[in-house]
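Practice set, problem 2.
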Amino acid sequence: MRDIWIVAENLPWARTLVAGASSIGQGAKIIAFVNGEEDAAKEAIACGATEAFYLPLPSDAPWEAYTPTLAEKAKAEKPALILLSASRRCRDVAAQLAALLDLPCFSEGKNIVLTEGKVTVDTMVYGGMAVKNSTAHAETVLVTVGAKDFEPLPADASRSGAVSALPLAAGRVTVTGRKPREAQTVDLAGAAKVVGVGRGVSEQGDLAAIRELAKALGAEVGCSRPIAEFFKWMPEECYIGISGQQIKPQLYVAVGISGQAQHYFGIRDAKTIVSINKDKESLMNKNADYFIVADWKEVVPELLKAVQNA
């Protein structure tokens, strides 16, 4: 079987992608390309990669500047499959690689199967309303993968493999300076519990009650698109949906969220979905495992009491 490559924006993604490559191409050589320094590549080896390259952030170029080098290497070595993290940065890299190499690229792929030189993959279509099963017969196929689509393998320090830096080719974009963003306060992708806020929460000041419930549950707080993009009540990294975060928590509590396909796509893999919405016929209520038909202002304080007393 030909090689499988993984391209990861950070080490947690690398662990997930290496696990995915191991399950998809049993016996295949797994080549990892990881954002970071040498230690990140060594960790990828410990988690199951056969060989690893580290891609440190250049001082005067964007990290995406490694893409032409990746493309030339892929053109020469012809891996059967390239898995990339479904992060904003690697989605961009995936699109560039597909264009440079004229190869098929599947976004948010599920149930990936590699057999006899062809790749079969499921993807969501119609805003998450349906699943499309596709088969690509190309020499190399690219697929972006969600953060929790595969369970990382235990690290084994006794594993060995070649580790080296990936060369950076001169590009057309020069970075003249970087300004650190405010520290990210949420980890939706890794959260076991998430409370989501929708337009049913009509005032920004009401977020305090939602956060209090989330704190009692040990949950992160996310939101639907309007809360982050239109009202600017929460940062963009809190936005859950097709073009935002896709999450896979054990528990998702939707507070005042209608449940349109754009948002539901981002939470569809949650193990248990609880909806609080006064509209009995809302899509979120219909798709939830449990729902409460009432004004959230009446329900959330009672839930908070119950959690605190549990």
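Problem 2, part (b): a different protein.
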Amino acid sequence: MKKNIGLFLLAVLLLSTLTSCGALKVDENTVYVQKKRKIIGASVESFDKEYYSEEELEEYVNQRVEDYAESHGRKSVKMDRFSVEDGVARLNIKYAGYEDYAEFNGVELFAGTVVQAMAAGYDFEDEFLAVTDGKLEESADKDTVTADDGYKVVILNEKVNVKVDGTVLYVSAKYTSMAGEDTVAIALPEDAVDGEELALTYIIYK
């Protein structure tokens, strides 16, 4: 069963986390987009010590973080905490920005203003739903969700919860549900794969 450790490692590393200052305590995989585009996430994975070595996993993660930091700068990524308790593995990593998160995990992630996103080539050609008090409401069009220059947006293609520093106003209609006024749950269809452009989800907030 040792050969399966590679799959587990990849699953854990797809989402990484920082829980410094107790800022993020969740029970599901979560990416937290903070101000100044810094990224915090939470990876929570089941861990069976009969099949996997805790020391081997931690060593692997440390090495991967070290390799990335050597080529992208010491502040780009840092493992903050790793623990295994009650059969659950938690991996904590801090990213300097959304670009580092995207490259390190091999997914697409953008975090910034709507204006910046459009300048970067994101077209917002999607079906949207308005969000009121943390609940999905009526549909909204592109002109509505891009109307205010002060709106911020997170764009990504992962099956994960997304928490923002603010209040969610609009979300892509497909694959999303609300887990709170500042948190969106993304559950892509079974045939969608993390990292595919077709799976992009937009989250607009202020």
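Answer key, part (b): Residues 109-205 form one domain. The CA atoms of residues 92 and 194 lie 20 Å apart.
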